[in-house]
Amino acid sequence: MRTSLGPVQLAASAAWTLSGNDIGTMITAAPRLYPHMWSWDTAFISIGLAHLSAARAAQELRTLLSAQWRNGMIPHIVFSEGAGYFPGPERWGAAELNPDAPNAPRTSGICQPPVHAIALRRIVDIARSQGERAVAYDLLTFAWPRLYRWHEWLVRHRDPLATGMLAIVHGWESGMDNSPRWDLPYSEVFPGPDLPPYVRLDRGLVAEDAERPSDVEYDRYLWLIEEMRKVRYDADAVVRDSSFLVGDVFVTALFALASEVLATLGEESDQPAWQIKQLRGWARRSRAAVATSYDPLTGLARDRDLRGDRWLSTSTIAGFAPLLCGGLPVGEEKSQLAMLCGPDWAGHPGLFAAIPPSVSPNDVGFRPREYWRGPVWPVIAWLFGWAFEEHGWKSEAEHLRTECLRLAADGSFAEYYHPLTGEPLGSRQQSWTATVVLDWLH
Ligand code: 9YW
Q: Most exposed among 44, 56, 266, 295, judged by the fewest C-beta atoms under 10 Å?
């Protein structure tokens, strides 16, 4: 029998999970599988924390931002002193190879989706509603210029065609590591004989190997790091040389959305007008790039393989990117929303809860237990819910929230869930799952 906690117990349990993952210097992404700080996890984690303590949320975001590279990049992992994750700081060698990387704390050499301004918005609002005006003000003053520099880094180094479509150089940068979106570009990443040997540490920390990426996939992930090490993580050389270079429509949509949010936060806090204007311009351009990728035949937006110079039409949740940032004509937008809520996605009759999975259950590639190839990821649902609220699609946002809370009521705070049975998969006590649950409960 599946446990079903009531809202009070669930909130207490989520708070307990976060405090259990607090190692003093940071809240780790998960207790055993991910004993470090991940960039986009921390954005979500700080939102949940704000409900418990605005000051603690601000501290967490500050910890992440304090590891920002001198060139503006926010690294995808900030390592704790603890070991237990591969690849760790030695394998990355970021600080040894690139003077922009901080020596302490140590970091990885790539980035993750730019959701931080969205988190800042949420924390500032929560803090203000709690009467914590000084906390909100101090955090805004600290974070805004740093987030501006982060967005500027993305525009400067990750828009190789100057179209607004932002490129990633590793599947990890998408946050959706082994999504079928990347199968085609990864099929052209050929690990060389000089790939140093390694031992995976993730195996054994989840119930079944199939819940994690395969060894073939890992070889490619590690090979891309070797390629980056060769050019010492020089941002432009990485884009020039990496065998994986893909315009990521989901990252681009998040960037457009986050740039608008950051611009508005800038207006509220008297930031320089030219920077605010620039952010709005970047948002406009990236929103247009997302709209350009829309395929009327499938009704989905597409990634762009910049090495193979082709659209990637794999059908995944990322195809709904325009619903995050807007930019489609009203008719197309309405039909995307209907499709997301309809029988191929969140309205599929076999689902445990009406939440869009990472891949449609009607797709031949649907693998309900395999990581980003089918399971439901609560954070992704949170992003759509947040965007729905912003667009004024109240009933859709409310329905999604109710269904997510039903899924999460088992109190496992799993990393991802089996869409058809609701079985928890991957890590348990995953911080970002606990934190989005806390936000939904408020
Ligand atoms: C890994 C921490 C990270 C997330 C990613 C997710 C996973 C790390 O966990 O990647 O080693 O598999 O794919 O989005 O930030 O929660």
A: 295
CA atoms within 13 A on the CB side of 208: 8
Distance from the alpha carbon of residue 175 to the mean position of ligand 1, in angstroms: 6
Query: Which helix or strand (DSSP H or E) is residue 385 part of?
Result: helix 378-391
Residue 163 has pLDDT above 90, yes or no: yes
Judge whether 363 counts as a catalytic residue: no
Task: Report yes or no: 211 and 371 within 8 Å, Cβ to Cβ.
Answer: yes
Give, as one character, the DSSP assignment of residue 180. G
Which CATH number is 7-441's, of 3.80.30.20, 1.50.10.10, 3.40.50.2300, 2.40.30.170? 1.50.10.10
Q: Can you give the residue ranges of every domain in the chain? A: 7-441
**Does 159 qualify as catalytic in the annotation?**
no
Q: What is the ipTM, given to two decimal places?
A: 0.99
Residue 441 contacts residue 10 (beta carbons within 8 Å): yes
Instruction: For residues 431 and 172, give the distance between their C-alpha atoms in angstroms, rounded to a whole number.
Output: 18
Atom of ligand 1 nearest to the CA of 415: 16
Tens-digit pLDDT profile for residues 269-288: 999 999 999 999 999 999 99
- Ligand 1 centroid to residue 91 C-alpha, Å: 17
